[in-house]
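Students often ask why we bother encoding 3D structure as a string. The short answer is that it lets us treat folding as translation between two languages. Here is a chain of 332 residues written in the first language.
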Amino acid sequence: MRILILLLSLVLSVVGTAQNRSDQGTLSLSPQQGQTHDIALFEGDQLRWSVSAISPKKAEVGLMRLYDDQEQVLLEAQDFESRTFEFTAKKAGVITLWFQNLSNENVQYKATYSVTSTHKKVPTIAYRQQKDTTYGFAVKQWISHRKKDVVPVQEEGYYLNSTSNALVKGGKNRILIPVQLPEGTQEWYYSFTASRDKEQMENTLASFQLASQLSTYADNDQKLQQAISTLSPPPGANICDVYVMRSEAQAMRFKDKEEFSYHLPSSRENFKSGVVRVKDRRDAYIGIRNPDNLYGIHVGLSITALVLQEDRRLEEVQIPIIRAYKKGYIKK
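And here it is in the second language, the structure alphabet:
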């Protein structure tokens, strides 16, 4: 484990030419404390360093490691009073010397190193900020899971009289259908078909199955909308007017054949069949009117909602441990 603590009380004395440089200093380490020192080397540079205890004199260096710039251990030694090491760099980069006092008392060490190089230029170390992520032991936490489902709301067939029948014989050429949406609805859709042939309408209503066609794409909004736009509309032979209304007051005005307002983007006039998206989360009303003066018509309506469902579960999770540090490299 690399702990980036700069060498405290290390007094550097640089001697010689660019081909030969040396540093020395004193390391004061408390029990179990570790310190690092970065050294820049070109390919072929030879590094020689020594470590020995000053106070107490017979104290041991608990642990010494040499890391490359990928944090791989190049050399390691443990439990020695005084020792000299040599290393030749196989590639240019910044290596790190790591010292750790494994004893139960404060110890001072003398550290000296020298570099012999064939390069005239002395490498300069620069630092960039980096982060590593590791994971600790698993702990139990309540985790929220969110999922979108396509939920069937209602599916019905209706018969509407002609306009003249409604006017003269008291029949109904319009119906009002309340739409009660499930909790968590994000938006909803309706498929519509109209035909003078009741059997044809009922077969279309039974076979189209809007919810099952859309359920595969519930958690991917882009694919869901693509699926809706590419669906072949259910068969339809005759026309109706379909209005989506957001308030009960406007719905009652539609029912009573008074002037009313409706949601234009999700309403259709002269509509034979198709699938319509309603970008709303609130309950609504659908009004259907047969504009034909002579013929009654059978209509089929299927309503489907896109519902966000959320539940919480007690699960074991591993907590991420993010380590931020500065990584050395040779500045060009």
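Translate back mentally: Confidence is low (pLDDT under 50) at residues 1-17. Keep this in mind for the problem set.
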